[in-house]
Design a protein that fits this description.
Shape: elongated
Helix content: 55-70%
Strand order of the largest sheet: 2-1-5-4-3
Radius of gyration: 37 Å
Structural class: alpha+beta
CATH architecture of the largest domain: 2-Layer Sandwich
CATH class of the largest domain: Alpha Beta
Number of strands: 12
Number of domains: 4
């Protein structure tokens, strides 16, 4: 071929190979005047020329906007990629990234061009979709904020009327119904507040306040908030706070309480038997900045490694059955994580399915106090206290027929019958669930009897509950001896 002999004479033998024709890039060889000496098959196809026809063209026909001054055109693209418009035979054009390299002979150049029309179109669509997504997100969050405010008003109204009636009503059944209404209102308000907080965090409207507060009083209030529920579930509650933490610190007390309440509520909710522990320590203090480390540990249901990956994602709980069994929106830990990060900290989880969970996080606060250095008793007591002793004790509790298990079941059975006789059905239901957990390694017949007892207790039927209780007690006596 005529142009093939020309490029071979100039030392561009590789351009005659199949590689040059099949490459995705448009390949040209041209001289300083712009005369095209070689064009590959890709270039001819893209520009809608015959190959022989394209070789007779000048680069100014292809680069109509940029090849006004050949010297500038070459200089600006010499071994540096630059976007240019390339014109087809029918005068339509497309965008391409163009690079030029010196040829093997003086006054010759190799031009490589890549069609970027698809890439540019894709980027345009991505930008458009991103803008639409941002607009949808703003609209969604505005709607969420408005609807949660609207929902809060009727819920508060129902709660207020129920509280007024509770002071006037003497009938025990009616009071029980009002208690359920109040409990539902509190749950609904908690869900509404979580959704509202999440919407604020998503839109970046959430701010951390900086105010001085008494750290130890804050911890006392947090512990007092959860003590009743812990006592109701017969859990052991350990609290250990480092004395090196300054009494007065500067930060967002409300949000720190929210983080602790979320973690403690989860620990209590998912723990039927055993313990919930809280450890707080000062890990660092530089000038007026103090880093405080918190650990919340429980002996609850635990979380598998696979489920842990879902835990800090919006509207997710580790297991779908958890939502059905325990309720919740799945937003609590998402909000907790974002609040911790807003307070310059990070949250971590250590857990194993069936063996409890440990959530730990750190936050940075400020203080005007200089605290006297003392030996840190927290870590010493935590290491001595905890893992081995607690796990060994829990294993004994849960190993059906062991002395610790026998004693625990006897204690819960005594409290169960007292709760039934007093009509404390919520407490009785909780105790029945605990007994079922303590006997989960027993035989199937015993487990069926306990389940039937639990179902009757839920219906608040005194006579049937006592009958079922006697059946369960008899089964335990036959299986483990006198309770």
């Amino acid at each position: 071929m005529r142009y093939g002999k020309g490029v071979k004479a100039m030392g561009f033998e590789w351009l005659n190979s199949r590689i040059a024709d099949e490459t995705m890039e448009l390949v040209f060889v041209f001289n300083r005047q712009g005369d095209i000496l070689f064009a590959n098959k890709t270039a001819a196809n893209k520009l809608e020329y015959e190959k022989d026809e394209l070789v007779k063209c000048n680069m100014s026909w292809i680069f109509r906007q940029d090849f006004l001054d050949p010297g500038d055109f070459i200089k600006n693209r010499l071994e540096e990629k630059k976007e240019s418009a390339m014109y087809r035979k029918n005068s339509s054009c497309f965008s391409a990234d163009v690079r030029i390299f010196p040829g093997d002979k003086d006054d010759t150049y190799v031009l490589l061009a890549e069609d970027i029309t698809g890439w540019k179109d894709m980027n345009t669509r991505i930008r458009k979709l991103k803008k639409e997504e941002e607009a949808n997100l703003r609209e969604r969050n505005e709607f969420t904020a408005n609807i949660t405010h609207e929902l809060r008003t009727p819920v508060n109204g129902i709660k207020g009327h129920a509280m007024e009636l509770l002071d006037k009503v003497e009938d025990e059944e009616q009071r029980k119904t009002l208690d359920i209404i109040l409990y539902c209102c509190e749950n609904m308000l908690a869900i509404i507040n979580n959704i509202l907080d999440y919407a604020k965090l998503e839109t970046g409207k959430f701010t951390i306040e900086e105010k001085e507060f008494d750290f130890y009083k804050m911890m006392d209030r947090v512990i007092a908030t959860h003590s009743a529920e812990i006592n109701k579930k017969e859990l052991r509650f350990g609290v250990n706070v480092d004395e090196r933490i300054p009494q007065f610190v500067i930060g967002d007390e409300l949000r720190l309480v929210q983080i602790l309440n979320n973690l403690l509520s989860n620990a209590i909710k998912f723990t039927m038997i055993g313990f919930v522990d809280v450890v707080v320590s000062r890990t660092m203090q530089v000038n007026d900045e103090v880093e405080i480390f918190f650990m919340v540990r429980d002996s609850g249901i635990g979380i598998s490694p696979k489920e842990q990956n879902k835990l800090f994602r919006s509207f997710n709980q580790a297991d779908a059955s958890i939502t059905r069994r325990f309720g919740g929106t799945g937003l609590g830990l998402v909000i907790t994580k974002q609040l911790v990060e807003l307070m310059q900290g990070r949250i971590q989880l250590e857990s194993e399915k069936g063996k409890g969970s440990t959530f730990s996080f750190s936050v940075k606060l400020r203080t005007n106090q200089n605290v006297e250095e003392r030996n840190n008793a927290v870590y010493e007591s935590w290491e001595n206290f905890t893992k081995e002793d607690h796990e060994r004790e829990e294993e004994n509790f849960l190993r059906f027929g062991e002395n610790a298990n026998r004693e625990e079941i006897k204690k819960r059975m005594d409290k169960l019958v007292l709760s039934i006789e007093l009509g404390a059905w919520d407490k009785a239901e909780m105790l029945a669930s605990t007994i079922k957990e303590l006997a989960k390694n027993g035989d199937d017949e015993m487990k069926r009897k306990i389940l039937r007892m639990e179902m009757v207790i839920r219906k608040s039927d005194y006579e049937k509950s006592m009958d079922r209780y006697e059946d369960v007690k008899k089964a335990f006596t036959e299986r483990m001896g006198e309770l």
